[in-house]
Structures are given as structure tokens and as C-alpha cells.
Amino acid sequence: MTQCKKADNVRLASLNRRQFLGAALGAGAAMSFSPSFLALAQDASLITRAIPSTGEMIPAVGLGSSATFAQVARSEDISALRSVLSRMAELGGRVFDTAPGYGASEEVAGGIAQELGIHETLFWATKLNVAQRGGTADPAAARAQLEASFQRIGKPVIDLIQVHNMGDPAVQLGLLREMKEQGRIRYMGITTTFPEQYDSLIEVMRNEPLDFIGTDYAVDNREVEDVILPLAMERGIAVLNYAPFGRTRLWARVGDRPVPDYAHEFDAHTWGQFFLKFVLGHPAITAVTPATSRPTNMEDNIGGMLGRLPDAAMRQRMIATVEALPTV
Ligand SMILES: NC(=O)c1ccc[n+]([C@@H]2O[C@H](COP(=O)([O-])OP(=O)(O)OC[C@H]3O[C@@H](n4cnc5c(N)ncnc54)[C@H](OP(=O)(O)O)[C@@H]3O)[C@@H](O)[C@H]2O)c1
């Protein structure tokens, strides 16, 4: 992909659809968009996916808040995060993944969303974990953590709370079930991105009523395809996809190489969209929540839910492309 195409794409994404169409149809602007992108934007509905337990539709690309988001949330200047959250909402994104374990992220995002007046419309996915790894959770401490999340987010009913990293599922899932029965949360789930915890995740998926799981999946990290994703489809469990870029791993692998020309066949114009469309090409994935601290990257990521997705054969081609890159 040339720099020019990347700039065009970011420019497209930095406009809402109406503004985009107005700009694109104007004489000067139309010069700078490729015909395929113009055609796409004419029909630029966002890809949404159903949550299996209710059928509720949610936009397929959202925002995560560990990694760089958490670094900025800890800093003195959080203005970039305000722009990231407002761009996501303006462009139609809603799913925001956070956790009390991500430093200041939950509190900072809650404050910004309330200031912007978007806290009610965001789909909040936060987490619960007061257990030490592999240890037990004190129910009183867990309840206190849950109440703190309600305070920070400022929404009377939280959309989704998941047990973080398989922390004491017996106690913590029990508390979430109680909160769901009381109508304080709409969905409950459990997460892990540690391969050594996959067996425990599978056991919980087989034995507990779950609305969601959250797990890692990327074009170069596909272990969850073996059991976890098929089981999610079989059991009607939604999947939030974490680390679609492997945090920095995939960026280091692609370096400054251009996106392959064939990516235009599924409307991916940047590597970010290439990676996001790979994961959304799996039918088990309900939504993907890449972290970013940059508004332009948020806009780029929203482009991952515009246009076509790769089919199974194309996904194999994408895997081959990435496998041919040097590992870092
Ligand atoms: N067990 C769990 O519950 C669990 C575990 C891991 C992750 N998660 C969730 O999943 C989210 C995503 O995972 P992650 O943050 O670990 O990794 P990730 O989303 O794979 O990667 C984030 C990195 O990609 C960069 N990036 C984002 N969009 C980009 C773009 N369009 N172009 C170039 N660079 C881009 C970000 O930097 P910039 O700021 O520069 O954009 C950041 O360095 C987390 O934030 C968290 O919410 C949950």
C-alpha cells in the first residue's frame, strides 16, 4: 500500500458517512479517493454481529483499554483518549473493553464518556478479579470492586462484566450470576489470553451459563480455533477478540511493507484493517477490541468493519502472507 492510499483511507475514516459522501462527491475531494473506496462508502454500513444469548446486535469493532490506552490514562495529559473515544462514538463504534486491572483506564474512560455524554450508549465490557492468580477471591472484596466499576462508568446497568483471567470462577462467576439476576448487569462472561488457562476456560464454557468469553486471536495466533471458537458457536457464547495485533508483535513483523494488493478484494486498505478483517472472518467472533491511544488509529480500526470480509480461502492466503514474514 502506498503512503497516498493510507492517507486517503485515514481521511475517509475521519469523516462521518454523511460528511464523507459530501466531501467525496465534491470535485477536489473525489480526486483523492480510489474508485473502490468511493463505491464502498456509498454503501458504508458497519458490520454488526449478534450476541447469541439475546440476538442483540453490536458493532464488530470497538476499543480496548490496556496497552497504550492504559499508558496514556496514567499520564497527565489524557486529551488523546478523549479524541479516541469521541471518534469511536462518532463513527459508530460502541464496544469498549476495560478492567479495574488496567490502571486508570476504567476511571479515565468513565469520566471522559460522561463528559462527552456517550456513557449510556457505549457497550461497556469491564471485568472482575480480586483473586490472586490461581487463588481464591474474597467475596466482600469482589463486591467492592464491582461497586467501584459502577461508580466509574456512571451507568446504572453495566452491559457486560467478565471474570478476568480465570480468577476464581466458582466465587466470581457466582457473584456475576447474582448481579445478572438482579438486573444490574446484562451479560456475564470470563476471559483469558494465557494458553495455559485454555483448558480451564474450556471447562467453564462447557459447564457454566455464559453470555461471553474474551480471548486472544490473531492471524499469527490461532490456537483458539481448535476447540474454543467452535465450542463458543456450539454453546451460543459470544466472543470478544483480544490482541488482534498481538499488541506490538504483528506491527513489528510487517514493518513498513505495503499491504498486499489482494487485500482490496475484501476492502482492507491498511494492515490494521487486514488484521481486523482476518479475525472478523471467523464466524465465532462477535466483536474485536484493539487498544489504541491515537484517534487516527481508531479511525483506521473502524474501517475494519466497513465493506467485505475475507472468505475461508482468502483467510488461508492471509495466513500464508503473514507466515512468510520474518518473526521478531
Ligand atoms: N484477559 C483479558 O481480559 C485481556 C487480555 C489482553 C487484552 N485484553 C483486551 O483486549 C484489548 C486489545 O489487546 P491489546 O491492547 O493487548 O493489543 P492489540 O489491540 O493487539 O494492540 C494494541 C497495539 O496496537 C497499536 N494499534 C492499534 N491500532 C492501530 C492501528 N490502526 N495502526 C497501528 N497501530 C495500532 C496500539 O498502539 P497505538 O496506541 O499507537 O495505536 C497498541 O500498541 C486490550 O486493550 C484489552 O482491552 C483483555
Report the principal-axis shape: globular
Cα radius of gyration in angstroms: 20 Å
The set of bound ligands, ions and cofactors reads: NADP nicotinamide-adenine-dinucleotide phosphate
CATH architecture of the largest domain: Alpha-Beta Barrel
- How many distinct beta strands? 10
- Distance from N terminus to C terminus (CA atoms, Å) equals 22 Å
Structural class: alpha/beta
Biggest β-sheet description = 8 strands, parallel
The number of helices is: 15
Considering the protein shown, what is the CATH homologous superfamily of the largest domain? Answer: NADP-dependent oxidoreductase domain
Question: What is the helix content?
Answer: 40-55%
3D structure, described in words:
The protein is α/β, with parallel strands linked by helices and 328 residues long. The protein has 2 domains: 1-44, no CATH class; 48-323, TIM Barrel, CATH 3.20.20.100. It is 45% helix and 14% strand. The protein is built from 15 helices and 10 strands. The strands form 2 sheets. The protein has an 8-stranded parallel β-sheet with strand order 3-4-5-6-7-8-9-10. The chain has a two-stranded antiparallel ribbon with strand order 1-2. α6 packs across α7 and α10 (198-207) runs parallel beside α11. The model is unreliable at 1-15 and 18-35 (pLDDT under 50). The structure holds NADP nicotinamide-adenine-dinucleotide phosphate. The site of NADP nicotinamide-adenine-dinucleotide phosphate has 31 residues, from α5, β7 and α14.
